[in-house]
Amino acid sequence: MPNGVSIRARGLHSPIAYTDPDYGVYLLRRRPTQISWPHDWIRWPDLWLPTDRAGAVDTLLAALERAEREQVEIACKAGRGRTGTALAVMAIATGIASDAAVEWVRRNYDPRAVETPWQRRWISRLRLPDRP
Asked: Where are the domains of the chain?
């Protein structure tokens, strides 16, 4: 992340080639069943937006806070659209402007991240709640 916090991001179709995370956030249509470590699930259909956008933002901001002291993983099936969009939310929380977040994620994570126009539009218009 722009603030130096490390977040592991991947597609779930890729095997874990390193240690299990301390905590994960999974961006999927259905609740994951094969995850054995602490995690949260955001209902998020492929190529779309989270079904509860405010709840998704809250979960992602909490994960970002956890990443300051734990190994946190963010993942969807392929690791591009939903994962990239989630990383953009987190980048905004660390100080990147909403209209620059998609480019930051593409430059620092995957050039094809944040796949759809509605994902890009959501990020460009995102205003995060004030955090204490």
From this structure: 7-125
25: β partners: 40, 74
d(C-alpha 129, C-alpha 132), whole Å:
10
For 15-60, how does the pLDDT look when each residue is reduced to its tens digit (9 = 90+)?
766 788 999 999 999 999 888 999 999 999 999 999 999 999 999 9
On whether the CB atoms of residues 23 and 63 are closer than 8 A, the answer is yes
| Strand extents, DSSP E, 29-118 | 39-43, 72-76
CB of 6 closer than 8 Å to CB of 54: no
SS3 89: helix
Q: What pTM value is reported for the model?
A: 0.93
Q: Which SS3 state, helix, strand or coil, does residue 62 take?
A: helix
In CATH, the number for domain 7-125 is: 3.90.190.10
